[in-house]
Amino acid sequence: MKILVTGAKGQLGIEVAKQSGEHDLILAGREDLDITDAWQVSSCLREVKPDAVIHCAAYTNVDGAESDEDGAFQVNAVGAQNMAAGCLETGARLVYVSTDYVFDGTKQGLYREFDSVNPQTVYGQTKWQGEELVRQILGRHYVVRTAWLYGEGKNFVRTMLQLAEKQHTLRVVADQVGTPTSTVDVARAIYRLLDSDAYGTYHASCQGQCSWYDFACEIFRQAGKQVQVLPVTTAEFPRPAKRPAYSVLDNYMLRMTVGDPMRSWQEALAEYIQLELNRKV
């Protein structure tokens, strides 16, 4: 299968490339393809003629989006529209990677794919708008929502490990709950979906839940780092964009269709930390 991957230099794009197997991948970074340019997207898809597009490119600066709504909308919504239109024109299928930020974080229980959305940030709003444009334009699509992602690049795990080399005490938010998710697991889920015709909306996060405080404690435990972690509230760390208090996703549609390949967050984290520690040796 010939697959075009946008956002190829981001965390998920890098992992998608690693797991390509026998697929023929065309990797497009920001400098290779301007997804906000409809003509450029159409020309690229007509030239490449992919069977599928894995659309990882996104405006992911959650706080920055609050003061740059037009920029976030151009990338997350218009970019998705252009990609869906290009796929419709060329007959390609589309994987649109989305986020838990489409929900408001107030539900008392796991979020399933058909729960009502209520994004509270510009980032969440523009990703939801992107989802809707994909649905309206292209029937052969997979919307894949994930959360608390980490992989090859800047992320919470690497930040904690770096801080552990400099500080013996860290303060970490304890009243936001979600699921740390490895790009390895999300990439597996995406390829499993692409092997099927089970089009629709999916959640793809690792199993279980924790707070950022719990996450940090587990990182240091698994890495063998002696760091005192102090729990603090969101109010003590004000940010421009509101964070969901609770955004645990239930991979319900994966289980009901192609099967859920996502591991527990602790198991996925253990693999990642071991690779990180070996990389530094």
UniProtKB/TrEMBL annotation:
Enzyme Commission identifier(s): 1.1.1.133
Domain RmlD-like substrate binding: 1-274
Function comment: Catalyzes the reduction of dTDP-6-deoxy-L-lyxo-4-hexulose to yield dTDP-L-rhamnose.
GO molecular function, one term: dTDP-4-dehydrorhamnose reductase activity
Alphabetical list of Gene3D superfamilies matching this protein: NAD(P)-binding Rossmann-like Domain (3.40.50.720), UDP-galactose 4-epimerase, domain 1 (3.90.25.10)
Protein name: dTDP-4-dehydrorhamnose reductase
EC class of the enzyme, as a word: oxidoreductase
Pathway stated in the Swiss-Prot or TrEMBL entry: Carbohydrate biosynthesis; dTDP-L-rhamnose biosynthesis
Organism for this UniProt entry: Propionispora vibrioides
One GO CC annotation: cytosol
Matches recorded under InterPro entries: dTDP_dehydrorham_reduct (IPR005913), NAD(P)-bd_dom_sf (IPR036291), RmlD-like-bd (IPR029903)
Similarity remark: Belongs to the dTDP-4-dehydrorhamnose reductase family.
Signal peptide: none
UniProt keywords, alphabetically: NADP, Oxidoreductase
GO biological process, one term: dTDP-rhamnose biosynthetic process
